[in-house]
User: Which sequence fits this backbone?
């Protein structure tokens, strides 16, 4: 969790405020009075915890629940004064539902997700050629919508499906050298909300916005002329290799078709 965010809400929360932590099993917020998560209370804290102790929650106020099951959480409307949901929405299968339930059960809160650049960090866990954490389902952006006749505008969470085929695209990589230049605020982004967590999915019908992601990387890490030339040479070599393999693939396809035709004739 961003220290600036936790310092802010912990300083502002009244002592009697009722607080909910959604998805906090790995590192629960000690100030939370209730926690809801798929994992049990007994195994909490795999990655530590947030905020000063002691824990305000207990085994009795720890709700084991699939937060995406499309059933209302076992809390009343506006039961909580404040709710936190930190580095969870990018993991779950239905973050829009989670945001709707956050809005229902709490009057205000804070959500935090990785930035777009963080989802493109190469080999971030040191265990393979992945971009960002391999278990993340979504690339999340925080967008500001201007006021309109239909609404008041403001910030909203925009969820873009994260396909696994991007992991092998070297043009999207934020390399370890690049990551060393990033501040924590460039890897995590937070949204304070009141009344409603605005969230929507950015639906992709045909072409995935790869060039848009590449532009994000280039804007933050402009390539030197030498690096740009090296990238162009690499891309050209990959193109030529693909062209060289094409006749072999075509020959293999023709051989397969001939063999299949022979099998069909013998069968008849």
Assistant:
């Amino acid at each position: 969790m961003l220290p600036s965010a936790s310092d802010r809400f912990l300083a502002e929360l009244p002592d009697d405020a009722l607080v909910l932590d959604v998805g906090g099993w790995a590192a629960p917020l000690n100030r939370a009075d209730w926690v809801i998560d798929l994992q049990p209370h007994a195994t909490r804290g795999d990655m530590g915890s947030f905020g000063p102790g002691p824990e305000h929650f207990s085994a009795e106020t720890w709700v084991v629940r699939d937060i995406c099951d499309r059933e209302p959480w076992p809390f009343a409307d506006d039961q909580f004064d404040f709710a936190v949901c930190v580095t969870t929405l990018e993991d779950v299968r239905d973050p829009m539902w989670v945001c709707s339930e956050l809005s229902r059960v709490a009057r205000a809160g804070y959500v935090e997700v990785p930035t777009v650049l963080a989802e493109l960090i190469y080999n971030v866990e040191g265990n393979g050629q992945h971009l960002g954490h391999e278990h993340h389902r979504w690339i999340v952006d925080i967008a500001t919508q201007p006021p309109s006749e239909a609404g008041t505008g403001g910030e909203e969470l925009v969820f873009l499906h994260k396909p696994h085929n991007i992991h092998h695209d070297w043009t999207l990589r934020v390399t370890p050298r690049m990551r060393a230049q990033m501040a924590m605020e460039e890897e995590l982004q937070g949204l304070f909300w009141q009344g409603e967590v605005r969230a929507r999915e950015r639906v992709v019908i045909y072409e995935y916005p790869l060039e848009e992601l590449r532009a994000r990387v280039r804007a933050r890490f402009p390539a030197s002329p030498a690096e740009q030339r090296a990238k162009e040479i690499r891309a050209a070599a990959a193109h030529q290799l693909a062209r060289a393999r094409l006749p072999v693939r075509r020959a293999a396809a023709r051989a397969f078709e001939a063999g299949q035709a022979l099998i069909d004739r013998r069968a008849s």
